Amino acid sequence: MKGTNMSTTRIFPLTALVLVCVVGGGMNAGCRSDRFDKPPRQLLPDMDDSPKFNPQTATEFFEDGRAMRPGVQGTVAFGATSDAADALRATFLREDQGLYAGRDASGAYLARIPSSVTVDATLLARGAEKYNIYCAACHNYDGYGKGMVGEQWSYPLPSFHDPKYKAGATEEVVDAATGAKRTIAAKTSLDGYIFDVVRNGVENGAKMPGYGHAIKPRDAWAVVAYFRALQVSQDGQVSVDVPAEKRADVSAAVERANRMFLDKKAADAKKAAEEDAERERLEAEKKARKNNKPASPEVKP
User: Fold this and answer.
1) Binning pLDDT at 50, 70 and 90, where does residue 43 land?
2) Which residues contact residue 62 at a Cβ distance below 8 angstroms, ignoring those fewer than 6 apart?
3) How far is CA 109 from CA 188, 202, 229, 263, in A?
4) What does pTM read for this prediction?
5) What is the rounded CA–CA span in Å between residue 86 and residue 80?
6) 242-278 pLDDT, tens per residue?
7) Cα(77)–Cα(225) distance, rounded to whole angstroms?
8) Contact by Cβ (8 Å): 66, 58
9) CB 250 within 8 A of CB 238
10) Cα separation, 120 vs 102, whole angstroms
């Protein structure tokens, strides 16, 4: 009897070990990128299938039936930390109307970039980066409105070098009460207006979409600064804006750039002509083969 019990006791651990190896091996095999028709094994299903609400969906969990929750009444954004001195708090509160909306206290567009934004090489580099990503596709890298997308537009896109977009441009308005005319700064010449267009688009997005979702307020001012730099780059004169000792070098660089541009333009035109000629040749050959194709033999009934 004693021997039988010992045998059973010894067999049970061995059987358990075999079962663990078989089950474990099967589970391990299922984790080695093997394909099965059955659903995968889930050791922790709540990690894969955790409950959640999709945007704009209904739920019975809340009394109003909305899954998306509105902000708590009477609260204001504080910041990413509990530190009241955190400099990032301003990006949540947005109390500076000029910095975050491009307007002064009366609601008018700012004439110039606000003093809270430091215009330096770093800002211009940031503006160039954002401009090249979001603006150049339509307005081109030089601001003349001849970008790859802009060329396909249903109407010509404006050039940033048009006088009405330059600082100092004016326009005449008529006083609704008196009918008198007066001259004011053109809206399109104001930095605040350009900032607003970058963030919100033109005519609420009807003519141009806004990029407020992708370009933050400080980056939008960087784009405005780069916008002005583009204008200056086209209006500059070597004899006036370049130091005397650098004028020869700049003139030579401009000449080289113009020559490279013209050479590339000629090479592109030549390549296009060759491609057109090759296409016409292939079409002519195809047409000739079609005309010279032997007639199909008649099938007699």
Assistant:
1) confident
2) 69
3) 10, 15, 20, 44
4) 0.60
5) 9
6) 888 988 998 898 889 889 988 988 998 999 999 999 9
7) 29
8) yes
9) yes
10) 19
